[in-house]
Amino acid sequence: MPKKPQARTAVAAAAAPAAIVRKLTLEQKARLLSGASFWTTAEAPGVPSAFFADGPHGVRRLAPDVGDIEGAVPATCFPPAVALGSTFDVGLVRRVGEAVAAEAKERGIDVVLGPGINIKRSPLCGRNFEYVSEDPLLAGEIGAALVTGVQAGGVATSLKHFAANNQETERMRVSADMDERTLREIYLRGFQRVVTKARPATLMSSYNRINGTHTGEDRRITTDILRGEWGFEGLVMSDWGAVHDRVAGVRAGLDLEMPAAGEGRVKELVAAVRSGVLDLDDVDRSATRVVALALAAQAAREETADGGPSPLAERGHDPEAWHDAAHHALAREAASRAVVLLKNDGGLLPIAPQTRVAVIGELARTPRYQGSGSSQIVPTRLDDALTAIQDAAPEVVFAPGYGLGPAEGSAGSTSGATRRGAVGRLWRRSAAAADAAEALAADAVAVARDAGVVLFFAGLPQSAEAEGRDRLDIELPAAQLELLDRVLEVNPRVVVVLSNGSVVRLSGFADRVPALVEGWLLGQAGGGALADVLYGRVNPSGRLAETVPLRIEDTPAWTSFPGTGLRVTYGEGIYVGYRWYDARDLDVQFPFGHGLSYTTFGYSGPGVSTDDAGLTVRVTVTNTGGVAGREVVQCYVSLPGSPVPRAPRSLAAFAVVDLAPGESREVELSVARDDLAYWDVQADRWRVEGGTYRVEVGASSRDLRATADVEVPSDGVVPSLTAASSLGEAMAHPVIGPTVTGMLQGAGLSDDVMIMTSAMPLDRLPYQPGSGVTHKQVRQLLDVANGTGGVVTRATGRLLTLVGRFRRHR
Q1: How far apart are CA 227 and CA 216, in angstroms?
Q2: Fewest Cβ atoms nearer than 10 Å: which of 53, 63, 128, 326?
Q3: CA 21 to CA 28: how far, in whole Å?
């Protein structure tokens, strides 16, 4: 990581942008708060422009005024986030980030727009291929690694989409409605981890609203939480076209609107300041952040400038001219580490080189390697699995089996004879298309019949997963499933290789095929990576970063996704992904964290120690098989018996370990104390409960090999009581609880009455007949509980605390 600047240098660097802003006119300041083009920021006296490009699994450099998806300068297309998440390898992801930074610099890019770490609330989200996981800790760790890698290379990042952007349907208007605990523990937690751990230079606000307020206009989220609680010091920009009310956004802390909004926006801001609707200090603050980003970008460019001609001018849009062999090799390594071996009955994989192999499926020849939308990279080269398999084995036959293109035919004109003629042509085309499809399928069945192993490539078409629209289901195309049934009838030795950006339903065939490989979308080198895994050159170590359900109806958001009336209720609360399935004890196809290897691993331990920083978990892992392999060690933590609703277990740490056959190694996992905390809604803060925590270590969320219990002290914060607090809360209070409980028990109340009374707010006690409680006594009780009533009252509180401890430990 780059060295931190000395304090004096940091102060000077912060002062320079502010000094520049003080010299600008109001119009110049307002102009800085919007882009100058689709991809650049505005210039001003002493202020250069910064150049943005989409990412983060590559660099999508377009001309400043081009907002199209097509036409970008070629760049290495690394595996998208859906695949990088399955590596569970932060070191590898950081190396990918460093390579992305190098390519961004070559292409004149100052800010890479990514990573995206939104939670995969539903597998129906059309943009899940751009996101890491259903788990906030994994999403945060992978996101932090990517940010660290990119920014170590002198290029800024833009962490996105902040926040709760979990669907594409009505994404610019929908309100994600949820309680504060859900927001904090699931949908903000990953962002908090990246911001505090990796310090991204910028952050991108999302299109949607949260609880009715557009995220870019929500000061509580954009300033109070992001800056006040997490210490973010960078710039907040809008997603492209996301601004709803620019004046409200500036007040809330949305510094930069992208893309260029034109002079009308400048006039709007100037008028708002001059009328007193917008404070000039708010404009100055945001302008200063824009200037700071631009100056930092300029300094980074000057550090690496060699005075030679620009690569852009020399190479143009020639993919071969931009090809970087080392980066392509890194893309292949990352892709191979992302492949998840879901099933391997009878050791069908890896394939012996001399085996006669039938490759079935157009996806083997025409790969899907990334999703559709603003993250699309123009690759410098594209490897397909078919060629890589043919290079690996002497006897390979291929049949496409199905097509990938859209259905032919058009309704044509709707009038008279023309309509009748069009219908006739459509029927003939449909019949011809059906005949062609049957010929493809029949040829595939014939090819599969005599093969030693069939590699059946299945997956989703590009149209099924794209920015701007959600999926309608989690089904594979019917033509592929029908073909698979026919192939299985003639040859049971079938390996299904999947290509998809989000989970698909496998329950229709998973129990009928001996081997199943999740190939995700693997970037430009994915074809070679798949061959590496299938033939054993790489021992698979990918793990599922999202649960594969048996059916869509089992998923947490099924009853509410994508909402109605521009609102979507997150009624499942904190129970997202594996937390939901575990809490409901639901069967799944494959659990979170699952992934097989060509070897086996044994666990012993764990040993757990505690200190002020959290837990240290040590477990010994042994390679008990015959080949070298990598295990992904996962640590889950729970608090059985907690009065706070919690998931049965939550991922708290993970690590990868490479082991030779027979080798053992102690793996140390650190669980931060902060990651044991839950969000206390009443206290409006994070809180660590004291108690006996259960630590489970294993190979997935449902393959837990070693367990230990450990005592964790509470954070020692005494909850405040108010007049609206219940009698039950007073009974549970560590200071006054024992006394209040003793008084009630001494009153001879029945158990039923005690239960009913415990829900009563304290300020209603004086109005209950025969209670003998006055308003003054309630106030005195609250003073003792909260330590707010003077020296005598505080001393009484300390005495009652000691008495309570004595009673609990008698």
Answers
A1: 14
A2: 326
A3: 9
- CA separation for the pair 109, 106 (Å, rounded): 8
Cis ω before 492 (30° cut-off from 0): no
Of the candidates 381, 473, 499, the one whose C-alpha atom is nearest the C-alpha of residue 129 is 499
* Strand spans (E) along 350-434: 357-360, 396-399
Which of 239, 255, 675, 783 does the annotation list as catalytic? 239
Considering only CA atoms, which of 93, 202, 118, 196 is closest in space to residue 155?
A: 202
Phi, psi (degrees; rounded to nearest 5) at 471: -80, 150
d(CA 383, CA 397): 18
Alpha-carbon distance values, 772 to 339, 594, 677, 768, 778 (Å): 70, 61, 40, 8, 11
Residue the block writes with tokens 């809604």: 681
Beta strands in 535-649 (DSSP E): 567-569, 601-611, 614-623, 629-638
Residue 674 backbone dihedrals phi, psi, to 5 degrees: -60, -30
Residue 345 is classified by DSSP as G
CA-CA-CA-CA torsion sign (738, 739, 742, 744): negative
Cis check for the bond before 56: say yes or no (omega within 30 of 0). yes
DSSP 8-class letter at 575? -
Tell me what percent of the residues of the chain surpass a pLDDT of 70.
92
Q: How far is CA 233 from CA 195, 289, 292, 681, in A?
A: 9, 9, 11, 27
Label the pairing between strands 396-399 and 357-360: parallel
Q: H or E stretch including 706?
A: strand 703-712
User: What are residue 610's DSSP bridge partners?
Assistant: 615
Enumerate the H helices of 747-789 as residue ranges. 751-758, 775-786
Which value, to the nearest 10 degrees, does the dihedral of the CA atoms of residues 589, 593, 598, 601 take? -120
Per the CB < 8 A criterion, the answer to whether 168 and 117 are in contact is: no
pLDDT digit string, tens, across residues 212-253: 999 999 999 999 999 999 999 999 999 999 999 999 999 999
Rounded alpha-carbon distances, angstroms, from residue 280 to 32, 275, 407? 14, 11, 57
Rounded CA-CA distance 433/442 in Å is: 14
CB atoms within 10 A of CB 197: 15
Of 141, 89, 134, the closest CA to residue 557 belongs to 134
Give the single-character DSSP code of 124. Answer: T
| Residue type, position 590, single letter | F
Q: Please give the single-letter amino acid code of residue 18.
A: A
Model confidence over 691-727: pLDDT tens digits? 999 999 999 999 999 999 999 999 887 778 999 999 8
* Residue 426, both tokens: 């459509």
Q: Is-catalytic flag, 239?
A: yes
Give dist(CA 370, CA 63) in Å, integer.
22
| Residue 548 burial (CB count, 10 A) | 22
In whole angstroms, give the CA distance from residue 735 to residue 729: 11
CA distances, 128 to each of 29, 285, 375, 680, 687 (Å): 37, 35, 12, 30, 31
The length of the chain is: 810
CA angle 242-243-246, nearest 5°?
Answer: 170
Check the CA dihedral 184-185-191-192 and report its sign: positive
